[in-house]
């Protein structure tokens, strides 16, 4: 009376099944589904493939993966190709983390709870703000949660001012999240690749709950935010700042700019791009917004033996208690990916973050200057850290396509994300790229941009 | 007690060596103006690689997972996570792709997504869907936005009310509220079910729809589902299916055939992808034909054997996450689904239901099970009588299970059962594991009457005792404040 060898994850022998049915007091498996009304019982055969061995499926997927094609990457726009140390991946691969769920039971979940507490702390250390949470889905949804927090804290205010230099996918997502609510967006326009802050005063009024800015912005340009928080705070609005946190290794951090809420994506810290996910949304805020925070939060306390212990805390904000009145609907978040990114931050440390930034910045500027020397590329606006934008006009798609043929993912045509950005190609250079690779890029770009091969 | 990373940090210690910079050095001031440079020190930890590895290895020792023991956490489907899923998902030809690469360089990955959508649609009896939502609750929010877009498109602005059973997951009302709906709670009847009678008063032109989990959170199949479905549709409303409990009915009944218009699945529950201590998960949304125009963009198209992103969907709700979903989770789920195949998935649901009913039948004599005489993949015990008799409560029983190397069930949920304990064994547990668990539950019951303090003091075999959650919430300490 053996187990059916077709179903290796389901351990029942036919003897087990018979014994269990007898204990229950029914004779057939079908009897356990007798409560499904006849008219909704599925009696056909599912149109799915037959099951196969792991080995065969692994081979099938290996073959599929070989239809992908990897080139030398200069892509950014929210996801960056940084070095991932082996120890980071290893630390996050323990089955104890991988196969656990939300740490509801602190006595057997101190490992994950402490890891989340450390993640929260590092997000506070990086941003300079007071409080953070266990993670959000990604940087773009984190933006929506931050805006939602601002509206909850300013119940009577119904507008949010958003810079046009924000990632187009963030803008699109914000529209999805808030289009059904009685809320208005006001755009802070662009001027030469930067947000035109001279317009801010005239847009701010007593309906403004928050101002949302991204730096580096979609063009990679570092926004000059001097004096911005003062303007926003005089108006009693919240300042939300979205950033690639890797840049904090070198550039001013949200607390130094006077932001109330900081958001972004921690993918650059140890996570592969994975076609866009899993990554991790981070959110940090000033202390008095703690109870408006979305999602899980881990707090420190003591156990009944007087030892330090970590628990999920402030759960009264959350959906399983507050239901329809919760601060958000977040339940499952990105815990394991958050643990990965905090392992990265801890391993490379403050000096490592500076090193990654300095190298990425140096290499990005090296590429920019070499491209400018080709004379086919117009001036590149700045200042930028390690991502910049070429204005290639109607040559943009052709350039990317021809660079692909020469072995490069040369950049992201921003026009594909938002048609108003047509012709602009964002190019990111990380510490991972070598001088030889960059030189080859320049050589290939030169051949293409010199014009003789162009079919405009 | 593990020290925090910050407590083992030592100034000047370096954990990782980067390659040497090989392009000419450039001064920081030449690239970034001085007033944009960081002035604040970053107080981040500085530790060696060995210490980092040891730190996380020791944290791991202090965390319970499915790989360590029985984890019958109700409504979470803590089944075995096959290791092959990790192998296929970590293939660099999948994991290293950038989301904005040219389409022709990600044909294999697009095919993975296309196949998964195709198989999930067949399994649920739906037309097509999106893999973009990053968790179950995110799927619910996406589904509710699709409801909204559908009614807006039809000019039916009065339809603002969504019916949700009191036994529903808390995310349901939270998601519907975020999407701008008004929530009407529908109480369960004395069978623990939603009756047609209970929803009938709301079947009018203000009804947007109903959110249901079937089987519901009591583990019971909604008997009047077809009456409910016809009634909601006749009134012009839509039905949303919370697929958290899909593990009970694969190959047995399909939400599409029950009349559901929109649903989400939890790949981290039914489709064996690991829960990761609270994510990353994945919450695909599937819809019927009439709702297709409202799905998030981009869709995945197949033409002349080429896969492509399709952005041109004028009625789409737009984007719900940054890119296309948790692709790494999607690869794992497809791996599982293809290994299992049509018979395997049906067998999994059958054995999940067998395991739950077996536990139920063995615990029924001691513990009160307030609803139903048969369950699907999970069931709910009430410890109210034990509490009245002995002062031992559901949480005490849960903590006592911990002392027996068993993860507690979901407790105090659903809210309609006092002292609720919701058990979901899943199909991957052996009869021996279930028998051991039954014995533990019987022993705890006896102890509760013989020596209640023993149970109330549990757990005693863990490295920490019960934590002071009230103090944690009253004086929140949510980040390390430095050595005090």
Structure description:
The complex is a heterodimer of chains A (456) and B (484). Chain A is of the alpha/beta class. Chain A is 35% helix and 14% strand. Chain A has helices at 14-24, 54-65, 86-91, 95-98, 110-127, 139-153, 168-178, 200-203, 228-234, 254-257, 319-322, 335-373, 396-405, 435-449, and strands spanning 72-73, 131-132, 159-163, 184-188, 190-191, 194-195, 208-214, 238-242, 261-265, 281-285, 298-302, 308-312, 387-391, 408-409, 412-413, 424-428. In chain A, the strands form 5 sheets. Chain A has a 7-stranded mixed beta sheet, with helices on both faces. The longest helix of chain A has 39 residues, at 335-373. The N and C termini of chain A lie far apart (73 Å). Chain B is built from 16 helices and 12 strands. In chain B, the strands form 3 sheets. A 7-stranded mixed beta sheet of chain B has the order 1-7-6-5-4-2-3, sandwiched between helices. In chain B, helix 6 runs parallel beside helix 11 (327-363), helix 7 crosses helix 8 and helix 11 (327-363) crosses helix 14. The relative contact order of chain B is 0.13. The model of chain B has no long low-confidence stretch (mean pLDDT 96). The interface between A and B is large, with 211 and 201 residues.
What characteristics describe this protein?
heterodimer, A: 456 residues, alpha/beta, seven-stranded mixed β-sheet, three-stranded antiparallel β-sheet, 14 helices, 16 strands, 35% helix, globular, disordered C terminus, B: 484 residues, 16 helices, 11% strand
Gist of the model:
Chain A is of the alpha/beta class. Chain A has helices at 14-24, 54-65, 86-91, 95-98, 110-127, 139-153, 168-178, 200-203, 228-234, 254-257, 319-322, 335-373, 396-405, 435-449, and strands at residues 72-73, 131-132, 159-163, 184-188, 190-191, 194-195, 208-214, 238-242, 261-265, 281-285, 298-302, 308-312, 387-391, 408-409, 412-413, 424-428.
């Amino acid at each position: 009376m053996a187990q059916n060898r077709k179903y290796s994850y389901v351990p029942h022998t036919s003897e087990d099944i018979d014994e269990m049915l007898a204990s229950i007091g029914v004779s057939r498996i079908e009897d356990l589904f007798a409560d499904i009304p006849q008219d909704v019982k599925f009696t056909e055969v599912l149109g799915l493939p037959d099951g196969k061995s792991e080995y065969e499926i692994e081979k099938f997927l290996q073959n599929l993966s070989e239809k992908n094609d990897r080139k030398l990457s200069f892509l950014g726009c929210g996801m960056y190709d940084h070095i991932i140390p082996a120890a980071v991946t290893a630390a996050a691969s323990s089955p104890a983390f991988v196969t656990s769920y939300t740490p509801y039971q602190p006595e057997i979940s101190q490992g994950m709870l402490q890891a989340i507490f450390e993640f929260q702390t590092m997000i506070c250390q990086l941003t300079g703000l007071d409080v953070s949470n266990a993670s959000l889905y990604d940087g773009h949804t984190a933006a929506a949660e931050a805006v939602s927090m601002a509206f909850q804290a300013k119940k009577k205010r119904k507008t949010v001012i958003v810079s046009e230099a924000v990632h187009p996918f963030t803008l699109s997502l914000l529209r999805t999240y808030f289009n059904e609510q009685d809320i208005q967006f006001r755009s802070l326009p662009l001027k030469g690749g930067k947000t035109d802050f001279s317009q801010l005063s005239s847009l701010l009024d007593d309906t403004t709950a928050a101002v949302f800015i991204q730096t580096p912005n979609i063009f990679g340009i570092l926004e000059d935010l001097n004096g911005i928080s003062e303007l926003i705070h005089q108006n009693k609005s919240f300042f939300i700042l979205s950033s690639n946190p890797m840049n904090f290794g070198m550039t001013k951090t949200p607390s130094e700019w006077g932001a109330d809420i900081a958001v972004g994506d921690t993918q650059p810290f140890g996570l592969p791009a994975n076609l866009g996910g899993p990554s991790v949304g981070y959110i940090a805020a000033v202390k008095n917004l703690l109870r408006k925070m979305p999602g899980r939060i881990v707090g420190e306390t003591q156990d009944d033996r007087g030892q330090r212990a970590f628990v999920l805390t402030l759960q009264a904000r959350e959906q399983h208690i507050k239901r329809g009145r919760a601060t958000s609907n977040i339940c499952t978040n990105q815990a394991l990916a958050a643990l990965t990114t905090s392992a990265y931050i801890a391993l490379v440390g403050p000096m490592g973050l500076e090193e990654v930034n300095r190298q990425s910045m140096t290499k990005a500027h090296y590429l920019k200057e070499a491209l400018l020397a080709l004379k086919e590329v117009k001036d590149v606006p700045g200042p930028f850290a390690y991502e910049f934008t070429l204005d290639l006009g109607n040559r943009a798609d052709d350039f990317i396509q021809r660079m692909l043929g020469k072995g490069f993912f040369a950049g992201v045509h921003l026009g594909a994300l938002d048609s108003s950005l047509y012709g602009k190609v964002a190019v990111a250079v990380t510490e991972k790229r070598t001088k030889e690779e960059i030189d080859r890029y320049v050589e290939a770009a030169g051949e293409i941009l010199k014009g003789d091969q162009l079919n405009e | 007690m593990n020290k925090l990373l910050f407590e083992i940090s030592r100034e000047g210690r370096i954990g990782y060596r980067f390659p040497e910079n090989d392009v000419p050095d450039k001064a920081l001031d030449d690239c970034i103006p001085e007033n944009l440079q960081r002035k604040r020190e970053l107080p981040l930890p500085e530790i060696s690689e060995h210490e980092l590895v040891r730190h996380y290895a020791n944290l791991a020792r202090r965390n319970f997972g499915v790989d360590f023991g029985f984890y019958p956490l109700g409504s979470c489907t803590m089944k075995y996570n096959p290791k092959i899923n990790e192998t296929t998902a970590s293939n660099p030809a999948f994991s290293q792709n950038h989301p904005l690469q040219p389409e022709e360089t990600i044909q294999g990955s697009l095919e993975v997504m296309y196949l998964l959508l195709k198989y999930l649609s067949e399994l649920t009896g739906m037309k097509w869907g999106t893999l973009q939502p990053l968790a179950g609750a995110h799927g619910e929010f996406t589904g509710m936005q699709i409801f909204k877009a559908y009614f807006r498109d039809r000019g039916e602005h009065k339809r603002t009310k969504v019916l949700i059973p009191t036994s529903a997951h808390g995310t349901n009302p939270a998601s519907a509220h975020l999407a701008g709906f008004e929530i009407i709670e529908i109480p369960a009847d004395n069978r623990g079910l939603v009756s047609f009678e209970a929803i009938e008063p709301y079947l009018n032109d203000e009804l947007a729809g109903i959110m249901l989990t079937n089987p519901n959170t009591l583990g019971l199949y909604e008997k009047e589902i077809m009456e409910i479905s016809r009634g909601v549709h006749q009134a012009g409303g839509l039905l949303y299916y919370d697929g958290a409990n899909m593990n009970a009915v694969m190959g047995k009944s399909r939400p599409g055939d029950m009349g559901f218009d929109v649903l989400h699945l939890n790949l981290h529950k039914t489709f064996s992808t690991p829960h990761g201590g609270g994510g990353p998960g994945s919450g695909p949304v599937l819809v019927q034909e009439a709702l297709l125009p409202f799905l998030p963009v981009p869709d995945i198209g197949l033409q002349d054997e080429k896969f492509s992103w399709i952005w041109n969907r004028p009625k789409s709700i737009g984007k719900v996450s940054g890119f296309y979903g948790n692709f790494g989770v999607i690869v794992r789920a497809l791996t599982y689904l293809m290994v299992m195949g049509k018979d395997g998935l049906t067998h999994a649901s059958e054995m999940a239901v067998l395991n739950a009913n077996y536990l139920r039948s063995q615990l029924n004599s001691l513990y009160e099970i307030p609803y139903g005489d048969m369950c699907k993949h999970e069931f709910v015990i009430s410890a109210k009588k034990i509490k009245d008799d002995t002062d031992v409560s559901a949480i005490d029983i849960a903590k006592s299970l911990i002392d027996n190397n068993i993860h507690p069930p979901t407790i105090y949920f659903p809210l309609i059962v006092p002292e609720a304990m919701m058990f979901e064994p899943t199909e991957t547990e052996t009869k021996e594991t279930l028998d051991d668990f039954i014995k533990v539950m019987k022993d705890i019951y006896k102890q509760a009457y013989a020596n209640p303090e023993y149970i109330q003091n549990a757990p005693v075999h863990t490295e920490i005792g019960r934590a002071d959650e009230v103090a944690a919430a009253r004086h929140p300490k949510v980040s390390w404040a430095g050595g005090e």
